[in-house]
Amino acid sequence: MYQLHFGVLAEYMPSILDGLLVTIKISALSIVFGTAMGIIGALCRISSSWALRTVGNIYVEWIRNTPLLIQILFIYFGLGVFFSLSPVTASVFALAFFSGAYITEIIRAGIQSIHRGQREAALSIGMTEWQAMRLIILPQAIKRILPPLAGQFITLVKDSSLVSVIAVADLTYVAKNIVTTTFRAFEVWLAIAAFYFILSFGLSLAVRKLEKRLAESD
């Protein structure tokens, strides 16, 4: 019968913590760049320019209808033919590109949920389009998009485990190596799942706190 031996985790804890730091680094950078891409994508999607709307539509539909794993492999091995990308750089690029498409839709929906009359009222008192967006629409839209945005960020943290296929030494990659060496699959994968839970739940709590603070500021 299989005997549990959690002591193996203590032995490999330095490697696990190194993998945890890599996961945090990749996730944080991907969230930052993915959010920037989402903002740009949303502005393209609601633009009055046909060309920008088309670019935004193609970006969102292409990304949403192809698997993330394929995108990671294409960026690392496919674009790697033309550009010298490290595994970490390719991972951040793939995750940001992927999450940016979903964030685009979240931000677009949030902006368009604000009644058109508010924009027209802002323009009627002399505001520019940018001022109306920055001072009237975005402050209201941000409160509405925070919950789905938090869900997208948490999904990104969990999806980051896929980058182990291109030998990024993240939590999943480190765990696979430890299991291969020790054959302690139950203990190792249980611990790795716990680390992902802590990251995701911590992120969820942080967003809830931000939501509460924004609600109190009303």
UniProtKB/TrEMBL annotation:
Localization (cell): Cell membrane
Membrane topology: Multi-pass membrane protein
Cross-referenced Pfam families: BPD_transp_1
UniProt keyword terms in alphabetical order: Amino-acid transport, Cell membrane, Membrane, Transmembrane, Transmembrane helix, Transport
Protein origin, superkingdom: Bacteria
Family annotation (CDD domains): TM_PBP2 (cd06261)
InterPro entries: AA_ABC_transptr_permease_3TM, ArtM/GltK/GlnP/TcyL/YhdX-like, MetI-like, MetI-like_sf
ABC transmembrane type-1 domain sequence ranges: 20-207
Membrane-spanning parts: 20-44, 65-85, 91-111, 186-207
Family: Belongs to the binding-protein-dependent transport system permease family. HisMQ subfamily.
Protein name: Amino acid ABC transporter permease
Organism: Anaeroselena agilis
